[in-house]
Amino acid sequence: FTIDDARRLANEVSRLQGLGADGDVVETGRAQIAAALQRRAERMREAGDWEGARALAADAQILLPDVAATRAFAANVETQYRQYQQAQAEQDRATARADYDSLMAQATVDSAWLNRVWRVRGALAGDAAFMDQSSRDIAAKVARSIEALAAADRFAAARELLQRGTSLIPDNPVLADAS
Q: Is the pTM of this model over 0.70?
């Protein structure tokens, strides 16, 4: 059932109204069209097609402005969409935090590691306290790795890691001390 199907049926209901059909027939016809559109929007939503469901709900309001059910289900779709977005954002933050923790637990620290941890950290940018702490934690881990590389006479790798670290965390005193 598409919005075009609904338009055709709504036009028929309006034609019946123009021919003097009973008010109950017209009201029932419009309510059934609204219910069919609502079912279609719900199926779209359940399939993950939020944009389609939202568009269909908005179109239903335009097509059937006098049917209270269209306003209610359009508002419901929008509320559910906001809840979905919030849940998705929370899941994304939880995944990013788990990825960050996993990266911080790794022993190997090189430029590729630093790029990955910095990218994952960026997904958590809304948490200022985390961002401050993670900058310090990353800098400390990088500084320890620089010291280990230098102690192993791997000065080029140590210099590369220091340059990459200071490019990402320029004002960190731990990295400044490592140079």
A: no
